[in-house]
């Protein structure tokens, strides 16, 4: 874990809340975490879901459209209140009061991530969160890294290093949200990390379009289909996949129109059954992750994020990575569905203690930096 040396140690330990809604835009993950210089312990969690209207509004804002500034402003306020409500409900559920909480680390909801323009935008107004909860809030975690020439993502590798690295172990930590990202750990050393490509974002789009459900529970629908080899090969030729790290991506590239274009360009997919396309998308996720990890060759793959609950995807990862022992982070002390929320609680602690939260070997930034902007209560 990054050590505190000359940093301010007045907040060396305490209770922190981490808040995030990921690329899938399906819920707010809220984690109450006790953080010390030695490690983290999650005490409680709360996951209020987005309804369909809110989910659709967020997804629509991820691409250019009419009246987007007005929609952005309204949604920023709405999500600020929703994130505050999630934090307050979590505190009450855990039997604490707001006065017991040192700070909230709120990632917010990403609606644009364009590293080629050094631009990233997360909404969920931090002033609203701080005012509503009465708790100091730290937000806007990505901008400083991008100002230093970095990708601004992934931001969880330092937390992975702090809580999941082990001496003598060659581990990859894989987060399966809308987009998949990996952290490479050689013993206690952070080697690197990057976004591998889509995790559930394409599967969620296709599932919603053809079944009305927002996601394919346990990969059951994909399991009924057959992989379309020509479509898989076509998708694997996507230029992003061949880029060297550091790299990051999001809905700006991998989205519904992107998938529809791949289907149009691949004659073999013209009359394919929807479940065959879904099976191919699941295999696309597993293959791109395996390809990205080929040179690192981890002995252990620790999986977190919503995709860790997709049994069919977990099986596919085991097949694609026969040399790695595949498990979830829950088996190693960090609940798989709360890793990112815990990470932003840790990043709030890091901000208050002057501990760098980014990793230049991951993002490409010119130096280490303390991340986030502070919003007093």
Please write the string of helix (H) and strand (E) elements.
Answer: EEEHHEEHEHHEEEHHHHHHEHEHHE
Derived from helix and strand composition plus strand pairing, the structural class reads alpha/beta
Number of strands: 12
Shape: globular
Helix count equals: 14
- Amount of beta strand: 15-25%
* Average pLDDT rating: 95
- Unreliable residue stretches: 1-9
Largest sheet: 7 strands, mixed
**Rounded radius of gyration (Å):** 20 Å
Alpha-carbon distance between the two ends: 29 Å
Share of helical residues: 25-40%
How does this structure look, described?
The chain is an alpha/beta fold. The chain has 14 helices and twelve strands. The strands form two sheets. Strands 1, 2, 3, 4, 5, 6 and 12 form a seven-stranded mixed β-sheet that branches. Strands 9-8-7-10-11 form a five-stranded mixed β-sheet, sandwiched between helices. It is globular, with a radius of gyration of 20 Å. The two termini are 29 Å apart.
Structural features:
377 residues, alpha/beta, seven-stranded mixed β-sheet, five-stranded mixed β-sheet, 14 helices, 22% strand, globular, disordered N terminus
Task: Produce a short descriptive summary.
By secondary structure, this protein is α/β, with parallel strands linked by helices.
């Amino acid at each position: 874990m990054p050590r505190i040396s000359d940093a301010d140690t007045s907040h060396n330990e305490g209770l922190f809340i981490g808040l995030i809604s990921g690329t899938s835009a399906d819920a707010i993950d809220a984690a109450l975490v006790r953080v010390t210089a030695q490690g983290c312990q999650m005490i409680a969690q709360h996951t209020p879901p987005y309804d369909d209207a809110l989910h659709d509004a967020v997804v629509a804002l991820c691409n250019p459209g009419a009246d987007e500034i007005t929609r952005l402003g309204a949604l920023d306020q709405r999500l600020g209140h929703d994130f505050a409500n999630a934090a307050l409900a979590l505190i009450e559920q855990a039997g604490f009061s707001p006065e017991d909480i040192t700070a909230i680390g709120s990632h917010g909801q990403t609606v644009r991530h364009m590293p080629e323009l050094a631009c990233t935008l997360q909404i969920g107004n931090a002033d609203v969160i701080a005012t509503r909860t009465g708790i100091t809030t730290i937000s806007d975690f990505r901008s400083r890294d991008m100002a230093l020439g970095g990708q601004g993502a992934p931001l969880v590798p330092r937390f992975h290093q702090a809580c999941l690295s082990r001496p003598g172990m060659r581990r990859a930590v894989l987060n399966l949200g809308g987009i998949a990202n990996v952290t490479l750990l050689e013993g206690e050393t952070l080697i690197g990390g990057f976004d591998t490509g889509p995790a559930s974002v394409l599967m969620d789009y296709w599932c919603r379009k053809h079944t009305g459900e927002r996601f394919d529970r346990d990969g059951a629908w994909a399991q009924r289909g057959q992989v379309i080899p020509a479509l898989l090969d076509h998708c694997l030729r996507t230029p992003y996949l061949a880029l060297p790290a550091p790299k990051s991506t999001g809905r700006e590239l991998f989205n519904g129109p992107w998938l529809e274009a791949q289907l149009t360009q691949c004659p073999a997919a013209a009359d394919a059954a929807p479940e065959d396309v879904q099976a191919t998308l699941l295999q696309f996720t597993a293959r791109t992750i395996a390809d990205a990890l080929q040179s690192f060759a981890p002995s252990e793959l620790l999986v977190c994020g919503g995709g860790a609950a997709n049994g069919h995807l977990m099986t596919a990862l085991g097949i694609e990575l026969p040399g790695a022992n595949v498990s979830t982070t829950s088996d190693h002390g960090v609940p798989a569905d709360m890793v990112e929320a815990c990470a932003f609680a840790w990043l709030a602690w890091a901000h208050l203690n002057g501990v760098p939260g980014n990793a230049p070997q991951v993002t490409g930034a010119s130096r280490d930096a303390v991340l986030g902007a502070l919003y007093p209560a």
